Structure formats: structure tokens, C-alpha cells
Amino acid sequence: MENPYDAIGGLPALEVVIERFCARVRTDMEVAEFFVWMDLDKQKAHLLAYLGQVLGGTRRHARATMRPNIAILPVRQRQFEVVVDHLVAALRELGVDDPLVAAIMERIWPLATQIVNTGSLRAAAV
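User: That's the sequence. What structure does it adopt?
Assistant: C-alpha cells below.
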């Protein structure tokens, strides 16, 4: 099986996913606070590079972890789950099938250890 990055259609598809994802999280009151103060265009570029790397693309993000980006904000497990749900929805809007969404989530869920910085972590499934 090809890597998830190539399987969804590479950079052009990931750009659409990121656009839809950002539109979704910006309007979700449970997580919008994380995105309101950001330069969203700059953040999209970081998301493209970081998620592209996580999904198996060849482009490398300057940082190996998301930790420095979110260190100033308290992030709870529930908020991480809401954000991931928006990513899943954006992938499905693009027409990504369930097995591929599951393969992508296998790479995304472990990132909770880099992002959640309050309370306890728990494993989650799609």
C-alpha cells in the first residue's frame, strides 16, 4: 500500500483538506480559541508541511514535534479529539474512504503525546 500522503492525492489534496479543516475548527467554539489569534495562512503552511511529513510525504517540516507550537496554550484530550474529528470530516469531504482515513488516524492519534499538555492522555479510535 502506498503511503497515506500519496494515497489521498499528495500536496494538492492535502491543501484542500487543510483549507476545509481550518474552516471547521475556526467555527467550533470548543477549539476556536486556539486558532483565533493565529495568522491562519502561516499556520496552514505549517500544517501542510507537518501533516505532509506525518502522512509520508517527502517535504520535511522544520520541527520534529508540534510541542513548541502549542506550549503556550493548555490543550486537553477532549480538545485534541475535537480537532482530530474535524480532520476526519475534512478527509471524508474530500472523498477519502474509511480504510484510508483509519490508516491516517493511526499516524495522527500518537501525536496527542506532543499536543495534549493537561490532564491525562487516553488512546482513541476513529
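The chain has a mean pLDDT of 84.
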